[in-house]
């Protein structure tokens, strides 16, 4: 029922970064927090490329229970230290309603991942956390289901919600998921909430991250969130989609060259 599109502010007073219609926010960082050194290096890479918010998972929802699950609270502590060192506010995923309080103590923004979009207890707990929420689209969710998931957060009094299109499951195996770029204008026609795009988790391949970021900016997204890693070959999670060197420089250039088209 909002007439104007909203801006969500992320970070501590005096250091807040906007996500909304007046800017294209660049969020970058490691898929997973693996160590203090790796997270600091990834954050420095992200910052030099122009990112203004740091991403990084301390709790990793993995398809296999035998894969690296994240460092948990130790990872949150690393993220808080790296925020001190770089000045970048932090967005990090919470996967369990019981962890919302501790994640909110450390993070500037809570991320709800694709696998938890319809975890209503978690959405309600995030709605009571007092922190902005980045709500990823479920990989098999319709746009309406996604917007209704956002209502579970809003209903608890938290309107600081940013939507994130991160690809949906289709019959096409060339990419991990299919980035539904049309979701951006469809959401913007229906909802006042900011919407950003995650080309890294959609494609699963670093070669596609820059072109899909360009597409996101061109279609009017309010930002992009991408994975970077100082040594993708050694990454414990999603190395093939992590940017470094040339691709990161290309993305930095694309972010600077494309003014928001809206
Ligand atoms: C992530 O951003 O770390 C992540 C796991 O993304 P998604 O929930 O979109 O798969």
TrEMBL record:
Residue ranges annotated for the DAHP synthetase I/KDSA domain, each copy included = 16-255
Signal peptide (from-to): none
Alphabetically sorted, this entry's keywords are: Transferase
Top-rank taxon, per record: Bacteria
Ranges annotated as spanning the membrane: none
What name has this protein been given in UniProt?
3-deoxy-7-phosphoheptulonate synthase
Please name the taxonomic classification of the source: Bacteria, Bacillati, Actinomycetota, Actinomycetes, Propionibacteriales
Per UniProt, what is the name of the gene that codes for the protein in this document? aroF
Q: Which residues of the full protein are shown?
A: 76 to 337 of 349
């Amino acid at each position: 029922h909002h007439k104007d599109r909203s801006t969500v502010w992320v970070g501590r007073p005096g250091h807040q970064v906007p996500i909304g219609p007046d800017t294209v926010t660049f969020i970058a960082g490691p898929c997973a927090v693996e160590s203090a050194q790796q997270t600091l290096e990834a954050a420095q890479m992200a910052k030099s490329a122009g990112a203004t918010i740091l991403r990084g998972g301390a709790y990793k929802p993995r398809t296999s229970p035998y894969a690296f699950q994240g460092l948990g609270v130790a990872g949150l502590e690393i993220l808080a230290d790296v925020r001190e060192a770089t000045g970048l506010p932090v967005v990090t995923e919470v996967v369990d309603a019981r962890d919302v309080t501790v994640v909110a103590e450390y993070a500037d923004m809570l991320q709800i991942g694709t696998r938890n979009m319809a975890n209503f207890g978690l959405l309600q707990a995030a709605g009571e956390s007092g922190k902005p929420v980045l709500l990823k689209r479920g990989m098999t969710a319709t746009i309406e289901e996604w917007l209704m998931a956002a209502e579970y957060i809003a209903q608890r009094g938290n309107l600081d919600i940013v939507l994130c299109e991160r690809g949906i499951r289709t019959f096409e195996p060339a990419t991990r998921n299919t980035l539904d770029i049309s979701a951006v204008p469809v959401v913007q026609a229906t909802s006042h909430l900011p919407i950003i795009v995650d080309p890294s988790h959609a494609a699963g391949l670093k070669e596609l991250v820059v072109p899909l970021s360009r597409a996101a900016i061109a279609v009017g997204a309010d930002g992009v969130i991408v994975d970077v890693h100082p040594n993708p070959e050694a990454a414990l999670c999603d190395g093939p989609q992590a940017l470094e060197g040339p691709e990161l420089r290309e993305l930095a250039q694309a972010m600077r060259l494309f003014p928001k088209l809206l």
